[in-house]
Amino acid sequence: MIRYVLAALLIVFSIVIQNWILRYFEYQCGKCEEKFTLPILKAILSVHFMGKKYVKCPECGKWGWVSLVPKG
Q: What is the distance between the alpha carbons of residues 26 and 72, in angstroms, rounded to a whole number?
């Protein structure tokens, strides 16, 4: 029972954190420098390492590491 509660709390915590991140930040492609936002589920489930995510850029269509940049 406790496992399910902890799993649910982890999911809720991930959604809250990603929602906050997506409100104030966007991602910038390392190849074409295009800025874009990710859907919340893709942002949560994508491979990430040291503040970067490995996703496909919607502009150039290439896979690569993207960085967080403030919206502006």
A: 9
